[in-house]
Amino acid sequence: MEEQEEPRISDVDQAETVTLPPTMGNGPDPVDLFADGEAERAFGAGASHKAPSSGHRGRTILALLLLVVLILVGCWFGARAFFRDRVAPGVTLGGQVMMGRTKDQVSQIVDRQVRDSQVEIKGEGTSARAGLKDLGVSVDSDATVTRIMDAKGSAGISRLNPFHGEAVPLVAERDQQAMDKYLTERFVPSQDRSVPSTIVFDQGAHAFRAQEGRGGKAPELDRVQDAVSSLIDKPGRRLAVGVVYKDVTMPISLDTADKVASQANQRLAKDLVIKGADDDLMTVPAATVATWVKPVTDLQKGTMELGFDRQAIQQYLDQELARQLNRDMVTAVNVKNTKGDVVAETTKGVDGVRVTDVSATTDLVVKALQEGDTSPVQVKAEITPHKEQTRVARYDVPDGDTWIRVNLSDQTATAYHGTTPVKTFPICSGKPRDDRWSDTGTFFIYLRHTVQTMRGDGYVLPNITWVSYYNGDEGFHTANWNSVGIAKGDPSNYGSHGCINMYEQDAKWIFDNAPVGTMVKVEGQVPSGPAR
């Protein structure tokens, strides 16, 4: 049987087309398979896919919002940490963006922009390029750096807002007189210049006097001042100005200078005194105060006022306050007997003193000088209270500590170990008149010399041996020239200037056996004649 060939795709156009008639009558209605549930009823479960509900969409949006918030919070804290020690966004210096710079980087930029800030000045037949310093401007670079680092505050959204900008100017002081001097020297011949009256210190008279000036030709400062103001506000540029000249009278009158000289001399009439702890005083010589005088002048207004150079004052105080007013703490050493009674203080206690805050003292000195206040200026200082140390001396027991009893009545000195007498020496004490007597009381040996030249009112005695001082300039020592007075015990006729004269071997025994801290008791009445 011959096989019939199946029609191919290319033969579709030749196939017979069958048309189905529409369904009539009461058959079922057509089904909308896209309606909810219809596809599932028609074809079984899983045939339909529901669109997300409104609740599900809300949770998704909330999650996304939370994620954005977390990212923003992280960025905020990260940026805050990054800019803690760096310049905030939006801060500029001279038009240069400073954002993110460290303190060292800012310092370098400030120094460079100060150097680059220049004014091209043109005058009659001459020109000059001047920096800020030439024109009397003192830039405080450290303060400028601090202002840049602190710009826009220390915290908050505003500090990190890059759209909130802040242009920081230089921190600077101007000296109008220095500017006028520079411009005058560069652009006005010396014979044509006006000279203000001023004050000078006369070394011979130790006083200030007025020095008269004169009228002449001078540069106008306004244009240069405007250029300087512009560079302070926006440094790092080079500006050009032309000098305008004017004929001027004497800028500062002689009468004005006379008044300021008189005020300065009033400040020199009495020493400047600075007070430390207790009664410690430091006196500043008038010649030093004179070097601090720095008149404040306004050449435009023709005024001069008494002023003082604060920087020079602080430099002086930095060197001298600590040297003259600081002191080390000294521990007090008290001597007690075996009963616990304090019998003497062998070493006087001294509180320690350290001067602090020299800058504050400088401000007080400047204020006192400006106001003519002659009261002592009180410094700020840290006080370290002195400590106390107690030494128990066994003077009231047999064979106790060494001490010496000087008996003026019988002109003897006896060494004891506690209550045990060890050795007695003949002496000749101070003469009982003309303020030459030996003081009575309880003392302690504090200074010794094997040999010394003694000097006093009307005498010089070289090569005095075995000296042991116990009361100011009173002490035991060899007196070879006074052997008769020692032998007789006759201070009325052979007395010293207050010391205890002894034979050399006896003075040496005292020196060898009575160290510093040995108690000395001087008692009795000086006899009117020889005691022996």
UniProtKB/TrEMBL annotation:
<keyword id="KW-0133">Cell shape</keyword>
<feature type="domain" description="L,D-TPase catalytic">
    <location>
        <begin position="402"/>
        <end position="523"/>
    </location>
</feature>
<feature type="active site" description="Nucleophile">
    <location>
        <position position="499"/>
    </location>
</feature>
<feature type="region of interest" description="Disordered">
    <location>
        <begin position="1"/>
        <end position="29"/>
    </location>
</feature>
<feature type="active site" description="Proton donor/acceptor">
    <location>
        <position position="477"/>
    </location>
</feature>
<keyword id="KW-0472">Membrane</keyword>
<keyword id="KW-0808">Transferase</keyword>
<comment type="pathway">
    <text>Cell wall biogenesis; peptidoglycan biosynthesis.</text>
</comment>
<feature type="compositionally biased region" description="Basic and acidic residues">
    <location>
        <begin position="1"/>
        <end position="11"/>
    </location>
</feature>
<keyword id="KW-0812">Transmembrane</keyword>
<dbReference type="InterPro" id="IPR038063">
    <property type="entry name" value="Transpep_catalytic_dom"/>
</dbReference>
<keyword id="KW-1133">Transmembrane helix</keyword>
<dbReference type="Pfam" id="PF03734">
    <property type="entry name" value="YkuD"/>
</dbReference>
<protein>
    <submittedName>
        <fullName>L,D-transpeptidase family protein</fullName>
    </submittedName>
</protein>
<dbReference type="InterPro" id="IPR050979">
    <property type="entry name" value="LD-transpeptidase"/>
</dbReference>
<keyword id="KW-0961">Cell wall biogenesis/degradation</keyword>
<feature type="transmembrane region" description="Helical">
    <location>
        <begin position="60"/>
        <end position="79"/>
    </location>
</feature>
<keyword id="KW-0573">Peptidoglycan synthesis</keyword>
<dbReference type="InterPro" id="IPR005490">
    <property type="entry name" value="LD_TPept_cat_dom"/>
</dbReference>
